[in-house]
């Protein structure tokens, strides 16, 4: 690994960027559109290049559902998109929000969106593949039946700081950031690098994350760019 002298050298290699679910189905023309999703792309790419150039790890997640997934309204009798249903699996009862079919394994909608710097990704973590339980976080399913290999990769690399961006702010980005905190990482969310399914809830979502120990920052913040980008 290349190291440089000076104030930045203490972070080299210790930072991971997690790019959450920047997939066609979450873009404006996708099946589960996040308003203004494509606006995040320049910021996400800047972070991918910046973190990568400085020896950090770049990880992407993909929502990766089988066609019969529990979260699809089409798989629940009388299920309506956006309503919440009570589900049961492995003796646990839980609320499950219903969604349009999205990110079906190997479909076009599940592909990373054009314009994303995917060649820089070190690792892609798939989630949501268990038919019976949803997985918003890149670290684990919503009921913690199983964790993904994401934490193992971060621990193997002795990552200390995790920067989270992607889609959607109010679901998968939020839960990924909260789990990053729970797994012990300093966790930073770059607000220009994410958008919410429900834009009106964006500010309260950021407040909630802050109250739980996630640092919410701006790509304009000098302290942030000095530490991680330049
Ligand atoms: C997501 C809803 C359902 C997300 C994934 O990536 O935020 N939201 N599946
Ligand atoms: Zn999903």
From TrEMBL:
EC number assigned by the record: 3.5.1.19
Pathway: Cofactor biosynthesis; nicotinate biosynthesis; nicotinate from nicotinamide: step 1/1
One GO BP annotation of this record: pyridine nucleotide biosynthetic process
Family of the protein in this entry: Belongs to the isochorismatase family.
CDD domains found in the cross-reference section: nicotinamidase
PANTHER family hit by this protein: LD05707P, PYRAZINAMIDASE/NICOTINAMIDASE
Domain Isochorismatase-like: 15-221
Originating organism: Umbelopsis ramanniana AG
Protein name as catalogued: nicotinamidase
Gene Ontology MF terms: metal ion binding; nicotinamidase activity
Pfam families associated with the record: Isochorismatase
Keywords: Hydrolase, Metal-binding, Pyridine nucleotide biosynthesis
InterPro entries in the record: Isochorismatase-like_dom, Isochorismatase-like_sf, Isochorismatase_Nicotinamidase
């Amino acid at each position: 690994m290349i190291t440089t002298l000076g104030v930045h050298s203490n972070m080299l290699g210790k930072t991971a960027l997690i790019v959450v679910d920047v997939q066609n189905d979450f873009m404006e023309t996708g099946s589960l559109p996040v308003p203004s999703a494509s606006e995040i792309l320049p910021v996400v790419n800047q972070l991918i290049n910046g973190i990568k150039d400085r020896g950090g790890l770049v990880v992407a997640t993909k929502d990766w559902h089988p066609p019969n997934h529990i979260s699809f309204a089409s798989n629940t009798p009388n299920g309506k998109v956006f309503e919440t249903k009570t589900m049961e699996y492995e003796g646990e009862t839980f609320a499950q929000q219903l969604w349009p079919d999205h990110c079906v394994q190997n479909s076009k909608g599940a592909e990373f969106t054009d314009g994303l710097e995917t060649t820089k990704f070190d690792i892609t973590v798939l989630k949501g593949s268990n038919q019976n339980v949803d997985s918003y976080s890149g670290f684990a399913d919503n009921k913690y039946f199983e964790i993904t290999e994401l934490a193992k990769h971060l621990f193997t690399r002795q990552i200390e700081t995790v920067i989270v961006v992607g889609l959607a702010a109010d679901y998968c980005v939020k839960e990924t950031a909260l789990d990053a905190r729970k797994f012990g990482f300093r966790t930073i969310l770059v607000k220009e690098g994410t958008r919410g399914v429900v834009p009106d809830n964006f500010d309260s979502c950021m407040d909630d994350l802050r109250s739980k120990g996630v640092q919410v920052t701006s790509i304009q913040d000098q302290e942030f760019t000095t530490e991680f980008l330049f």
